[in-house]
Design goal:
alpha/beta, four-stranded mixed β-sheet, about 25% helix, globular
């Protein structure tokens, strides 16, 4: 898929209850301020979902119905129980009124699955490479019929093939998880949401100049990005790592982890003025599953994110490799053993750790950054003073899985460095 044109840019981690197959319709919590944009990348996109609709919305938000979706009664404010799965999709839909001659159709440029454990003790955001070759199940068509199932297709065609419900079905089949919530954001939405949260500080190890995405960062160090600059950074592939989408994902996780730290440190989740600005932008630029269109649900989700320790928020990429032959030629082939180990942990709600300095092709640990002080979630007074003094249990290190926690401070690696 081609990068956005420069002209367009100018215009604008104990035994924990298992719930891998969560029942739809239960009271769910969403802590989406983790993500893309949890890039949208969307993470700017997804990330904003957390407290997004405290004030307005209902009639202005575009909605879509997921397959088998049912809506239970909304939770009382602050009473969200259990865990959830939400899929955040970044769409490359053409927003140029004159059309986009370099492409046709709509692809999911970014696909991120956010999972929050049943006991709300940890969260994992999994990024799927856009060229990851996967089977696509039969998806519902707009006319009430259905599209045929397909094998060995890049995951980013699912949005064009059967819309957001098809992308959700594909990820459910691939991961063995039920997805109760989904949200989709466009390029302009990512840019506007980045500005709505006040910008995000990102570290780069060397200058990055990417003419394809329009990213121009002429000096190494920390840069505060918002608007179209944030979008260009999140979309940059040729300017980071080895020029691949795998490198881009790890670079995006530099942004997402910083975003989570910023939101928690700046108290955005308690600032109704900022939440209102985010809500206004989201209502104009996002398409949500019907299960997300509820003010009480959104507010309750935001309260959950506030208490999640940074080191228990993990950003990982679906295990994959390039350079394979056959149907994987020029694409990303899944590493099934590593993927199954990862999703076995996620389905069982078991926290895990990653190998040190294994952040990915497009990022590296920022050795010069001061360590992030862990912030424990507020404890229930009835639990007694000893509750917070219990040592954290040791967790298994997953090999073959790349990523970082929100507490890890990293820098994006410029292409070739």
């Amino acid at each position: 898929m081609s990068d956005i044109s420069r002209r367009t840019l100018r215009q604008k981690h104990g035994s924990i209850a298992r719930h891998g197959r969560l029942k739809r319709g239960n009271a769910w919590l969403v802590m989406a301020k983790i993500l893309a944009a949890t890039l949208s990348v969307v993470l700017v996109s997804g990330v904003s979902v957390a407290g997004i609709w405290v004030w307005q919305l209902d009639r202005s938000i575009k909605t879509v119905t997921l397959v088998g979706e049912t809506n239970g009664p909304p939770p009382a404010l602050g009473s969200f129980e259990g865990g959830f799965n939400i899929l955040i999709v970044g769409s490359d839909e053409c927003e140029d009124p004159n059309g986009c001659k370099d492409r046709s159709g709509v692809l999911n440029d970014v696909t991120i699955l956010l999972h929050v454990a049943q006991d709300q003790s940890n969260a994992v955001a999994v990024s799927f490479p856009r060229d990851l070759v996967v089977p696509i199940p039969s998806c519902p068509a707009e006319d009430g019929g259905s599209y045929h199932a397909m094998s060995a297709q890049p995951i980013n065609v699912t949005l064009s093939y059967g819309g957001l419900p098809c992308t959700v079905l594909t990820v459910e089949k691939l991961t063995g998880l039920d997805i109760q919530f989904a949200g989709m954001v466009t390029f302009s939405g990512v840019a506007q949401l980045a500005s709505a949260v006040g910008g995000v500080d990102v570290c780069i190890n060397s200058p990055i100049i990417d003419k394809y995405s329009g990213l121009y960062l002429p000096e190494a160090g920390v840069h505060k990005l918002e608007g179209w600059d944030a979008l260009a950074f999140l979309r940059s592939r040729h300017g980071v790592g080895d020029g691949s989408d795998l490198g881009r994902i790890s670079s995006q996780q530099v942004y997402m982890s910083s975003l989570v730290r910023t939101l928690k440190a700046d108290g955005v989740l308690n600032d109704f003025g900022k939440l209102f600005n985010i809500a206004t932008v989201a209502s104009q630029t996002m398409t949500l599953s019907n299960s997300l269109k509820n003010v009480n649900t959104m507010v309750s989700m935001a309260q959950v994110l506030k208490n999640l320790p940074l080191e228990r928020v993990m950003f990982v990429q679906y295990p994959g490799v390039t350079g394979q032959d056959g149907v994987y030629s020029g694409k990303v082939a899944p590493v099934k053993s590593a993927a199954e180990a990862l999703f076995a942990k996620i389905r069982a709600d078991e926290p895990f750790a990653l190998k040190a300095d294994n952040t990915g092709r497009g990022s590296e640990v920022n050795a010069d950054a001061p360590p992030v002080t862990p912030v424990e979630p507020s404890s229930d007074a009835s639990a007694g003073p000893s509750a917070s003094a219990e040592p954290a249990p040791e967790v298994e290190v997953l090999h073959g899985v790349q990523g970082q926690s929100a507490a890890d401070q990293t820098c994006s690696k410029a292409y070739g460095t």
